[in-house]
Amino acid sequence: MRLISPLLFWCLLDYGASGVDTVKVSVMEGESVTLHTHVETDQQDRIRWYFSDIRIAQISGDLSKICTDVQCNEGTERFRDRLKLDHQTGSLTIMNARTTDSGVYKVQMNNGIITFSVNVTGAFGVNRVEVSVKEGKSVTLHTGVKTNQEDRFRWYFNDTRITQITKDLSKICTDVQSPERFRDRLKLDHQTGSLTIMNITTTDSGIYKVQMNNGIITFSVNVTAVTDSGLSTAVISAGVVGAAVLLFCWLQLLV
């Protein structure tokens, strides 16, 4: 097969994109979306996916070469562990979609190019709950739902899935992708899906999200460090400042 120059490739890419309609796709944050090729891989020599002109996935007709995100481009962290490539059709699924995933996706095949304009919107009615807790304590992030109201709960920490539970309890797991961070410190309520973090540490501070049928709840968790005296650093700082002010006032009285 004769190779074409990069310049000619992008000319063909732009020409092909202008010759077809752009497929508009909308999805809510946290959900999955599939961009369909409507072809069979054995009909194609190679299928390549691009996001903002950066290759993010590739599959050959004989399946000898398959790659996604960082496997295709070293250092491409945007979609780590969130892309799924259909080996039969080359269709691309984006899991746990983020608002930053919005943009133009192109799939290059033998018979042309399909362009997708993907818009990821923030989940309607998303609540943001601010939570503060001292280091070493336990904290529970409540879903606010009753027993068996939801088919599935999925918890994420900084966009990495850490727990999951299904309605029929057929699948329950914790520390899915980050076993070392929360090892043996997560407890999932089988009735409500609420999540308890035990013996919490300052490195547990961050954004937690629970994905349910009726939407997403976001928790901003702030863990304050505790000194040997049992006081948080914020309390000690306030005490030091207060003592300094009192000392200054006392010295002024002596003058």
Automatic annotation (TrEMBL):
<dbReference type="InterPro" id="IPR036179">
    <property type="entry name" value="Ig-like_dom_sf"/>
</dbReference>
<feature type="domain" description="Immunoglobulin">
    <location>
        <begin position="22"/>
        <end position="121"/>
    </location>
</feature>
<feature type="signal peptide">
    <location>
        <begin position="1"/>
        <end position="19"/>
    </location>
</feature>
<protein>
    <recommendedName>
        <fullName>Immunoglobulin domain-containing protein</fullName>
    </recommendedName>
</protein>
<keyword id="KW-0472">Membrane</keyword>
<dbReference type="Pfam" id="PF07686">
    <property type="entry name" value="V-set"/>
</dbReference>
<dbReference type="InterPro" id="IPR013783">
    <property type="entry name" value="Ig-like_fold"/>
</dbReference>
<dbReference type="InterPro" id="IPR013106">
    <property type="entry name" value="Ig_V-set"/>
</dbReference>
<feature type="transmembrane region" description="Helical">
    <location>
        <begin position="230"/>
        <end position="251"/>
    </location>
</feature>
<keyword id="KW-0812">Transmembrane</keyword>
<feature type="domain" description="Immunoglobulin">
    <location>
        <begin position="128"/>
        <end position="226"/>
    </location>
</feature>
<keyword id="KW-1133">Transmembrane helix</keyword>
<keyword id="KW-0732">Signal</keyword>
<dbReference type="InterPro" id="IPR003599">
    <property type="entry name" value="Ig_sub"/>
</dbReference>
